[in-house]
Give the backbone structure.
Amino acid sequence: MSSASYSHVLKYTWLFGGVQGLGLLVSILRNKAVALFLGPSGLALMNIYNTAANLLNQSTNLGISFSAIKDIASQQATGDIEAVRQSVQSVRIWSVMAAFLGVVFTLIASPVLSYFTFGNYHYTPAFASLSLMVGMMTITGGELAILKGLKCLKRVAVVSVLCGVLSLIVYVPIYGLWGMSGIIPALLLSTLGILLIHLYYSHKVMPWQLRGINRSTLKYGIPFVKLGLAFIVAGVFGQGAEYVMRALLLRVGGMDIVGFYNCGFIMVVSYASLVFTAVENDYFPRLSSVIHNRHAMIDTVNKQIEVCVLLVAPVLVVFVLFIPIAVPLLFSSAFSHAVGMSTCAVFYIFFKALTLPAGYLPLAAGHSKVYMSMEIVYDILLALSVPLSYHLGGLQGIGWGLSVMGLIDLFMVHIVYRIKYGYVFRSTSPWVLFTQFVLLCTTVYAALCLPLMHRCIVGAVTIPLSIVLSVRLFNRETQLWNKIKGFFKIKTN
């Protein structure tokens, strides 16, 4: 692994992770407000509506939010401004049509969703109201694809932060005044605001042109719509699994249990996204450029895996020991039941760091069917494992279930993609990765089984050791310490 390439991975991980960190801070404040004003049941209901809207959006958005990026980027690479404009115009027309499809489909499906989720039709009007949310989400996805396709990553970062701030501004007063009855209005208003922000920034880059729908514009968009259809299937199964999972939990455990699950899932997954964000924004284009060179492909994937593990491992060790404090602080004391689940689920993130970079191989190769098949298998297993894990071991059982699913996914991806693409996992420092895993196991054992004093002693050893291991390897590969000293020396001079 070259120092230069290692530095590149680390640079963009920090760049996009820093942006995500700002968004995460806003998300923490938003979740705190939701927890205080709505409680576990309110958080559960809000997440059920959100998951339903995401599922309906994934079912009807024609995959434009992902597939259009490649089309716009390829046109921009040619330098033909008119071709870029035509591509953008086609994306916008197809987005509007898909939005209309989403609205109609949601209205039709709302009674079914109400009965499947709650066992009655009382929530049909609420689900019908989500139709507007689904339509706006589709148009927003198209505008975001335009910004990404034109490589306006700074604008994407700004938009992400602004959208988070807007949702916080909307949620706090509405939930504070109306409680659970304000969930639907808050979701609709925040989605509208997010749409307007995306429209504003995309319009500044590529202004809207109110042209009529014609055959050539529609025909132009057929290739990226065809590509997007495969992602629709994968996305539907992904969001469908999330929705089915929550619906089954609701039936076997009740609304509060779904709220505790959402709390635990947010605590574990949201923080890890600081590291994984770089995968989508920087890693995927790099992998796509070397996918046909087996040696370079293996090297690129393994670099990303190593960086992800080294960054996420110390965070997880710290997280495990401080989660009993973090949950009441970030949510409320009513969510303390989620502590055990979050603790047991940290292995899910550790295994995800070993899996996610390799998981992009079929996308980089253009093998959408392979990607779709792997996602479908994983989503079905995940949807079944969570309620089963709750039945066997309660909330803590869910945490172990998620970790087991992370391990299963790890083996599936590495075995299948070794056969399909010749990918082989190699690490320049396997003992460091193994030691990080052992430290995490030790910390989890202490958190679950030892008294407070002993947990503090274990933490005093595992936390600094985990941090030192990662920093030393980063320094060895990138001369990180010398760069930091040089930076401050320049600042001083």
